[in-house]
Model the fold of this input.
Amino acid sequence: MMNKLQILVQGELLRLRRYNLFAASIFVSAIWVGILHFLNVENVTNIVPQLIFLDVTTMATLLVGVTFIYEREESTIRTLLVSPISKNQYLLGKIISNIIPSILSLTIMYVYSKLFKTIEINYFLLLGAVILVSFFHSLIGILLTYFTKDFTGLVMAIMTIFIIFLLPVILVEFNVITSEIFSKLTYILPTKSALMLIMGTTGTTHGWEILVSLTYLILGSIVLYFIVLKNFNSYALRESGE
Amino acid sequence: MYQINNLVFRYPKNKEDTIKNISFEIKKGEIFGLLGPSGVGKSTTQKILIKLLTGYKGEILYKGKDLKSYGSSYFEEVGVGFEMPVHFSKLTAEENLNFFKKLYSSTVDVDSLLKRVGLYDDRKKRIGQYSKGMKVRLNFIRAMLNNPKALFLDEPTNGLDPKNARIIKELIKEFKEKGGTVLLTTHLMNDVDELCDRVAFMAGGKIAEISSPKDLKLKYGSREVDIEYRDDDRVKRATFGLDKLGANEEFLNIIKNKEIITIHSKENTLDDIFIKVTGVTNDE
Done:
C-alpha cells in the first residue's frame, strides 16, 4: 500500500490543479517574470530573492487557507476526518503540497533569470530557504483558517497579517523607512528572518543574520506546528457540525 | 459490536448535557435505528461513536475494547455515510473514490457498486455536475468503500427517487446479510420499518424507548381489527378484539356472509409511535 502521506500529497496536488490554484500560482509567477523582464537590469541576483520572498510569504499563506476553505465549504473535511489517517498525516500532507507551488515559482523565476539575465545564486540554497519559509507561512495560513469563517474572513485576516508582518519589512528593505530603531524592531518579525534567509543566498547577508534567521524559522515552525496540531481538534469539532 | 454504558456528553460551550446517561447495545449483524426529532442527541451519539467527538463520560466498547484505545486504524473497519454531499466538486466521481480508496488497506469492487447504484456511466463526470440524488448515492459508495464491519448511515435515502431508494435499501440489507452492523439515523419511518431490527427513540438526550419495530407497534397499538363491510347497500364498520377472534360469532358471520370492503389490524405505525414517544411530530 502506498504511503498515506504520499497519497494525501498527491490528492492535494490534484485538487490544487483542478481548483485552479496552481494556475493562480503560475499566473503570479508570470507577473514576477514580467517584472524581471521589463526591469532594465541585467544582473538580477538581488532582485530575484526579493520577489521570491514576496511570492512565498503571500502565496504560501493564501493557498493553504483557500484549500481549507474549499474543504469546509464542500464538507469534504468531514469525510477526511473519518478516514484512516492521523492528524499529523493530514496536516503534513497539506503543508508539503503547499510548498510545491512555491518551489515551482522559484524554479520559473530562476530558469528565466538563467536564460535571459544574469543570476549568481546557488539554486539549491535558495530552494532550502524557500522550503523553510513556505513551511512556516503554510502554518500561519492554517492557523488563520481556524479563526475565520469564510473566504472573505480569510482574506481580511491575511491582509491584517501582511500589514503587521510584511509591510514593515518591505518598507525597510526598499529604504522607504530608514530609521535604525524601526529597522531593528523588524527583527522580531518572522518575515524579517524569512527575508534575511532568502537574501542570505546572495552572499550579502552576515553569517550571524543567517544563523539567527534559520534558528528563528526552525524553532518558530516547531512551535507553530504544535499550536496548529493542538487546535486541530477544536477545528475538527466545529467542522464536523458541532 | 458496540456496548454503550452510561454515556454523558456536554459540548464545551453548553451549560447542559446533550447526552444524559444513556446505555444501549448495538449487536453484531443488526441494523439499529437511532431515531428522534432534531436536537435530541442522536447525531451527537453518532459522532461520539465515529470518534468525531471526544471528552465524553461513561464507557463505549467496540468489539469488547474501549473505543478510546483505537487510533485512526478504527476507520479501516468503519464506514460513515453523511447526509450532505462530502465530495470534491471539481473532481470526478472516479477521482474522488480513487483518492479515498487508496487510504484503506481493504476495499470493495467500486465499479460493481457504481453499476448497482446507477452511477457507472457518470463516473467520469465532475461532482459539480451531479444532481442531489447522484451525490447521495455516491455518499453511500464512499461509506462502503473500505468494506466496513460497521456502517453509520445518516438519512441514506433522503432525496432519492423510489427506485434508487430501493436499490440503496437492498444494498443495506445485503450488507447486513454478510454480517455487517448498521447504525441508521433517519426521519423516514418506512425505511426504519423495512430495515431495522431494533430501534431506539431519543428524547431530551435520553433513550425514551428501545425495542424491535414489531414489538413497539404491539406495545403502542390496540389488539383490535377494524372491518368495513357492505350490508343492505349500506357501508358499515365494526371493531373486534384480536383475542379469540376465530371464535367470535359476529366477526365470523361478517366475513362469511358480507362483502368486505377493508380489513385492518390496529397496531400503530412507527410514525404514531415516534410522536407518542418523543412528544413531537416527525418532521420537527
